[in-house]
Write a structure and sequence with these properties.
The chain has a domain of about 140 residues: Rossmann fold. About 45% of the residues lie in helices and about 20% in strands. Helix 1 crosses helix 7. The strands form two sheets. Strands 2-7-1-8-9 form a five-stranded parallel sheet, sandwiched between helices. The protein has a four-stranded mixed sheet with strand order 4-3-6-5. It is an alpha/beta fold and about 210 residues long.
């Protein structure tokens, strides 16, 4: 018989800025052909080099509110004076096609996804090895992004609140060594794919096995 198909899963990675979430996400996408990333819609202005539909769907505040009112968002939140949200259509299509969808969202978005799609959801929180290391990474990144001292302090302050939500996640990875963290994230993904509820047609398959005995 042909191999049983499975329903895709929603794989959430959350962390404070600078903890390594983006690097881990990039490696998961590179190493798994059946994984895609959820492209968020946002009301913030497009930055240099960003591509509409690839980095974000850049929309006006009015259009964003209309999408929310029409039920076109799986989740949405306001972050740093801008709105961010997950369009529903592309995610549901990917799951039906057996593709896993990675979400780069915060704890607020994760809570909202859990309310409407808990069976499809796998959540991972990435922690830095120390507060000092997190600040070091943020300052190193600020050299290329030209973030101000005030912005760095704002991210550090926000990190304290974000990290307090780690208990709401299925898994926690402490990113002391990024290569090890990537392997752990991959192992979580592979294990979750094997869960019984994600395998389509399993009941009929087992019934066929039993009838043949």
């Amino acid at each position: 018989m042909s191999e049983l198909k499975r329903r895709g899963l929603m794989y959430v990675l959350s962390s404070p800025s600078g903890a390594g979430k983006t690097t881990i996400t990039r490696e998961l996408l590179k190493n798994n052909h059946d994984v895609t990333i959820s492209v968020s819609a946002t009301t913030r202005h497009r930055r240099g080099g960003e591509v509409d539909g690839k980095d974000y769907f850049f929309v006006s505040t009015d259009d964003f509110r209309t999408m929310v009112e029409n039920g076109e968002m799986l989740e949405h939140a306001k972050v740093f004076d801008n709105y961010y949200g997950t369009p529903r259509g592309p995610v549901e299509q990917a799951l039906q096609n057996g593709k896993d969808v990675i979400f780069d969202i915060d704890w607020q978005g994760t809570q909202k996804l859990a309310e409407i799609a808990r069976d499809d959801l796998v959540t991972v929180f990435i922690l830095p090895p120390s507060r000092g290391e997190l600040e070091k990474r943020l300052r190193s990144r600020a050299e290329s992004t030209l973030e101000s001292e005030e912005q760095i302090k704002g991210r550090m302050s926000k990190a304290s609140d974000e990290m307090s939500h780690y208990l709401e996640y299925d898994y926690v990875i402490i990113n002391n060594d990024v290569e090890v963290a990537i392997k752990k994230a991959q192992l979580i993904l592979e294990g979750e794919r094997l869960k019984r509820r994600r395998i389509l047609g399993l009941s009929d398959f087992v019934r066929g096995l039993k009838d043949g005995l």
